Structures are given as structure tokens and as C-alpha cells.
Amino acid sequence: MLLHYKLELEVAGMVDGLESAPFTIEERMNRLKTYQNNWQQLKWSKEGRVSFSEEFSGLTGQRIWAISGDLIAFGLTSRLPATTTLAVRSLNCLTENGTACDSKLDFGCYTRGIVIDSTQNLLVLISEHGSLNSFGDEYEVRIHDLFTGNVHPKATNGNPRHRPSSCSMARSRTQYSVLVWNNYVGVLCHEYHTDISMEPAEICIWDWYTGEVKMHLIDCIASFAFVSDRHALLGAPPMPDDRSPLLLVADFHEPNRCCVVSALLLPKLSQFTVIAMMRLHTNGSWISGSSDSSPPFRSSPENQVIVMALELEVSDPIAYGWQIALFVPWSLVQSFLNAEIQNRAVSFKECSKWAIPWDSWGPHGARMMKMNGGLTRCYRTYGSRCIFTTMRWTGYRASRHIVVYDFNQLLIKRALHGVSLQPMAHDLVEGNGPEIVTNPTTMETLRTDTMETAFDEIITTALPYTMVLGKELTSHVDVPVLTQDHIVVINARGFDVYYF
Questions:
Q1: 473-488, pLDDT tens digit by residue?
Q2: N or C: which end of the chain has fewer CB within 10 A?
């Protein structure tokens, strides 16, 4: 039984949980099978709602939220006066109307970025100092306990401040991306442009336990994501003398230089194409639920898929847009890590000279797809799964649905060799999936009448995946996100939660 359980864990792309967890091997096996079957069918065990209305009655401001594991923090922030009010809820303990909260927090700051880590009871806020139209002012990284609002007990420097040396723009045009991985917090600061190659951006990574800066880098950085305790992914637009975007892996334990240990070239863009948006997505810290009903296992760090979301604008002869997602297994990127090249790169421009060509890794190792359901900044991945939206047409009626892609290659190989995936059974799920997709995807011309194309040549990718079509969304602004145990749909009312 133990060997069988270990084999099923490996095929599922999972690792076992704590031995002290109150589950026998037989119970773990049964829970694993149920868990896998539910995700393959998108069959949740319960659902609930977290509502804004009761917690923030009478308050005004910009909505903010963050999800980690089985916790959600959500609330309102205002610049004048500088205030932030947050409620913290457990997704596993939903009431019928979702109004009672585990804690209520108030801060005297205007929040520009928020992230939480449920395994450490960690809340990180990015707040600004200075007026809306001031230039070059510092921002503050506020490290708090998620339930008390006090400075986190593990943080010896709870509120590090940083004055971006590259960001001299007005605050009204500044954007922040903040992520956490274990004891590291990273902040990317850049100015908003319709073409992301216009200006350099600045990234800082701290050890939030000590306040020590682990990496400080200024370059043409469009996005970043953590993938381990040592490595961060960086997305870079094409260099001036090239038209190929870059996917880089940086060792962030080198504070004073760009220590790139791998560089992959993406397909070359056409001369009429600019990148309006680039976002990298991984699932961040490796989190499993803490309740007795939680699965006693979690996704393996080696099984994660990297998602690069791209908005491309083509301007020949008229403006036309493409929204694209590129899916790359972390195991593939790992195979190109090379400690010997660490001292060769001091800028992204130099990286592009020795980066691995697209034809050497992309056509068979990745999958590129046009996303007809639109892109947002908050798509989520967990392990090998990732969640998007897609449009379906029935006659003249169009509907927008959740779709979950899974790039677990062992599970796909097993299914292709006769061990079938279970058919979907939930009443809110459309179609007959999950569907195994092995046929290549070809990115051809955008418009046949003008022969517009986003790329310099036709792009074909063939990484296999499974696809499950989920529930129809009621609004075009509904956004689904993913955790290990939940699908959460963000909408105007609050958050609809589906627990697996």
C-alpha cells in the first residue's frame, strides 16, 4: 500500500504531508483519489460566498484583496485620508452569507500592493509616502501579523523603506507588484506605459526576517515571480537590437549585480508589434490547508507550471490586439540552469546574446495559446494547474466560462496509455471533458485581409495538456483564481468560493 501510495503521489504531481497528520496510508490514498477525481471533473464538495457588504458598510475606497491557502484578506484603501481597512476570512469555514470575519484590521496608510502567506500568518502591504503628484518618493514595505495587525514577530525590521532610484515618475503612474516566498518578499516598481519597453523598472528582494536586501536590480523588467528559495523568474521585453522577449532565471542572493543563471528567448515579434502587458505567474510559497479536512499532501515544487501572460498590440495597418498565454514547465527551465554563466551577464542586453533560442526549447517543451476570454493581472496557478476564462458560442449566444488547464505530463501519459480520466459529472460543468489535447497549437496571422501577424513567423507549440470546462460566469468582469483546494471567483458582490 505504501509503495502504491508513493507511486500515485508521483503521478499526481504531489508530495506527502506531515507524517504526524492524523491519516493512515489507506486514508491518504483514498483522499488523494477523491481529490484528483474532483479536480478532473471540477466537482466541488461545497460552496459559499464572502461578501463585502456587511464588513465595510459606509466606508469608501479602492477594493484590495489577497488569497493564500485557505485564507482571504480583503478590504478598502483610501489615499485621503490615508487608511486601509481589512477583513480576514477562512475559506474553509464559510457561513451562509459569508459576513463574519476572523479578524478586522485598520492601518493608517494608503495601500498600493498587498500579499498574504497563510502558512506564516503574514500580511505585507506596500504603502507610499508623498502626494499623488510627487516624484521619486519612497515606498514602505509593511510586515504585519495577519490576525493582530501588529508587526510580525519574526520581522526584526518590520517596515523597511526604499526610495526607487530609477522611478522618478509621478505617483499617479507608478505600479507595484509584490510577492512573498517563505522569508523573502519582492517588490517590482515601474511606470505605466502602453509599451512596456519604454522605461527601466526596479526590483528589490528582502529577507523580511532581517530586513537585509538580497537583490536590487534596475533593468527592463516587465514582471517577476518566485520559483524557489534561491531563484526568481524575470520577464523582459525585447532589447533594442532584437525583437525577442526574454524569460530569465536570476539568483537573487547576489544583491549588487544581475546574477542570471538561465535565459530563454521567446519567439521574435514582428516589427509592428509592441508588448502592452507581460505578467509571470507561479503559485508562490508551497501551501497546504491546516484544517482536519484538508488533503494530507500538497503539490510538488518540481511539478509547477509557469504562465507568461502577454498582451500584444499590432499596428499595421490598424491597431489590433492579441492576448496570449505561454505555459512552460518549471522542470524544463530547470534543465537549462547553469551556474557557470553567472558572471557572464551584467545586463539583460548581454543575456540576449547567449540566451537559448526558442527553437531549442519552445516548440515541443511549451504551449502557447490565444486566450479568447481575456487576460487580467490576477490569474493564478497551483502546481501544474492554471485557471483562465474562455468564450463559448451556442448559435448567436456567447457565454464566458471557467476553464482549468493541467500540464501534469505523468498524468497525461497514464491517460494516453489506457488509464482514462473520469468523465465530468457536476451539474454546473458543461461538455464531456476533461479533454486531453495533444495536437499542436499554431499561432498564424491575426487578420487574413491584411496578413497582420504578432510574430515574425508562424509559431507552433505542442506540450500536451488537459482541459476542463467549468461553470458559466454571470458577468464579464468576474475573475477566477485558484488555490490548492479552491476556485474563487471575484465579482462585484465579493467572492464566490468553491471548495474541493
A1: 888 778 899 988 899 9
A2: N
